[in-house]
Amino acid sequence: MAPLPPAARPPRAELHVHLEGTLEPDLAFELAARNGVVLPYPDPESLRAAYEFEDLQSFLDLYTAGMSVLRTEADFADLTRAYLTRVARAGVRHAEISFDPQAHLVRGVPLDVVVGGIAGVLERSETELGISTLLIASFHRDRDSADALDVLERLLAMAAPIVGIGLDSAEAGYPPGRFEAVYARAAQAGLRRTAHAGEEGPAANIRDALDVLHAERIDHGISVVQDPDLVARVVAQQVPFTVCPVSNVRLRAVPSLAEHPLPAMIEAGMLVSINSDDPPYFNAYLDDVDDAVTAAYELTRDQRAALAAASFRGSFLAPDRVAGRL
Ligand code: ES4
Ligand code: ZN
């Protein structure tokens, strides 16, 4: 099936994208030059050529190394603007963008630099690009929960404009239960709660994210299909799952789109949205992902429209704002 032209793309939301994972090799080199950072590649093409991954960890190593060029408010602002400008063409009208505060704090980049740079662009995105935005602070699963709690308190103290929190990074060996206190504090502070779970890990991690963290939304969650009782429950509760099929193939969580559980999740009646995760790393922004999924599963126009509607329904927008977008 031919890719849809931009005008024919239904308006939709992107709910699962890591801001640091939107760093294009060209911008990485521009920022490196600006900040006097030396990248271990001679040029953007060589860096892009390195984007071949064996698993989640091999990606995280490169993703973390790439962040070394992000130092000033202007860097974070340029990164945010570049992503939003690109996805405006993909039909994205609402974006919920995650960032990794701990990844910058450990490099000595202060929280106000990170948050200030991102928020300055987000607050103008609706008027300037026609994209409403919400910001999610994501904590690292493979770090101490005490560190996450400390960073959360600092975000709250500075009244950072975040809608909620997430949990990301390595999954194997890091079950979500350890973050119970962080999620309880976020709930108490009125923040929304999502969590990566069941990306490389078992369905039990999804269950724990729901039962222990009381997560309202699950990022990835593809291992849910291993547990029919859990599928029935998330269908009944219409828990939103933000699935990133191209990411899963590129990180070899599944062998191919043809073998991806996405069609089974949709068929079961789950509230599923399709997302990009880290677009340049996986060579696919949201329009590319939509086109790949449409071709792989021969989706009809009606099925595409239903998925676009589900992307708004799974968002952290207030219900009255969702109704106006469907
Ligand atoms: C991520 Cl694909 C993926 N999984 C877990 N954590 C992440 N952070 C950025 N991309
Ligand atoms: Zn992710």
TrEMBL record:
Recite the UniProt cofactor note for this protein: Binds 1 zinc ion per subunit.
Q: Which residues form the signal peptide?
A: none
Active-site feature positions: 199 (proton donor)
Provide an example Pfam family for this protein: A_deaminase
Residues noted as binding substrate in the record, renumbered to the chain: 278
Q: Which residues cross the membrane?
A: none
GO molecular function (one): hydrolase activity
Q: Which PROSITE patterns match?
A: A_DEAMINASE
Give site residues, Important for catalytic activity: 220
Report the cofactors: Zn(2+)
Enzyme Commission number: 3.5.4.2
Keyword Zinc assigned:
yes
* UniProt xrefs under InterPro entries: A/AMP_deam_AS (IPR006650), A_deaminase_dom (IPR001365), ADE (IPR028892), Ado/ade_deaminase (IPR006330), Metal_Hydrolase (IPR032466)
Known catalysed reaction(s)?
adenine + H2O + H(+) = hypoxanthine + NH4(+)
Q: Which UniProt keywords apply?
A: Cytoplasm, Hydrolase, Metal-binding, Nucleotide metabolism, Zinc
According to its UniProt record, this protein's enzyme class is hydrolase
Instruction: Summarize where Zn(2+) binds, as residue positions.
Output: 16, 18, 196, 277
* Residue stretches making up the Adenosine deaminase domain: 11-326
* Highest taxon above the source species: Bacteria
Q: Which family does it belong to?
A: Belongs to the metallo-dependent hydrolases superfamily. Adenosine and AMP deaminases family. Adenine deaminase type 2 subfamily.
Q: Which NCBIfam families does this chain map to?
A: aden_deam (TIGR01430)
> Tell me, what does this protein do in biology?
Catalyzes the hydrolytic deamination of adenine to hypoxanthine. Plays an important role in the purine salvage pathway and in nitrogen catabolism.
Q: What is this protein called?
A: Adenine deaminase
Task: Please name the source species.
Answer: Promicromonospora vindobonensis
Gene that this sequence comes from: add
